[in-house]
Design a protein that fits this description.
- There is one protein chain.
- By secondary structure, this protein is an all-alpha fold.
- It has helices spanning 15-21, 37-79, 83-141, 158-191, 198-218.
- The chain folds into two domains: 1-146, no CATH class; 157-219.
- The chain is built from five helices and no strands.
Length: 219
């Protein structure tokens, strides 16, 4: 397999160094955070909407309580027949309630945005390894069994990836050993003076070609 091993959309060779091989952290770019849009956006959308509904419900309940308290204060002022004082208190309560609801909306919107970007980062740490494994599966389907590389620092699903890597490496080693057996057989045939003629020669040429193709697939 080539050196394209990052979980991101592009897989430069320098990613080996950034992924922890030389102890330096991998630098993720924002445009690469949506590796699996259907998975990530669905999860982010559901959690964000639920959070927004909960914040809205809580804010509405608090607003109703504040509105009720203001109404009771004004009702008490009406009983005392303090018209001028009541008007000033009414204006003050209205201004405070308005400022409070604006702050509440601002805080709620800020929390939703923070939650959205936090979920984007967290889902990326899951989608990254899945994206990386899917690329290895595509290459295996093409007969390519190059080296596998470690996950980036901070990625999740490490146990899953470790098992996949062990499986991939085991298959790769088995193919390497089979290739060595084929190479030794071809060398022995050549040393024994076996002439590549007729059906036997065609089969030996075919076997040699297969051996070369497998070497490239394992590189």
């Amino acid at each position: 397999m080539s050196s394209q091993h990052s979980s991101g959309p592009t897989l430069p060779t320098a990613t080996v160094a950034r992924s922890g091989t030389h102890g330096r952290p991998y630098k993720r770019r924002f445009r690469n955070y949506l590796l699996n849009k259907s998975l990530q956006l669905r999860y982010i959308g559901v959690v964000t909407v639920i959070s927004a509904v909960l914040l809205g419900t809580l804010g509405t309940m608090i607003w109703q309580q504040k509105n009720l308290a203001s109404s009771q204060i004004l009702a008490s002022m009406d009983k005392l027949e303090l018209g001028e004082v009541r008007a000033q208190i009414d204006d003050d309560l209205t201004r405070r309630d308005t400022n409070w609801i604006l702050r509440l909306v601002g805080v709620a919107v800020g929390l939703v945005f923070v939650l959205f970007f936090w979920l984007l980062v967290m889902t990326h740490k899951v989608a990254g390894p899945l994206h990386k494994v899917s690329r290895y599966f595509d290459r295996m389907a093409q007969g390519r069994l190059g080296e596998t590389y470690p996950l980036r620092r901070g990625d999740m699903l490490r146990d899953f990836y470790a098992k996949f890597k062990a499986m991939h490496d085991a298959v790769r080693i088995r193919h390497q050993e089979e290739n060595q057996v084929i190479a030794r057989f071809l060398t022995a045939c050549e040393a024994a003076g076996v002439k590549r003629q007729g059906e036997l020669g065609a089969r030996l040429d075919e076997l040699e070609k297969h051996c070369e193709e497998r070497k490239q697939a394992l590189s």
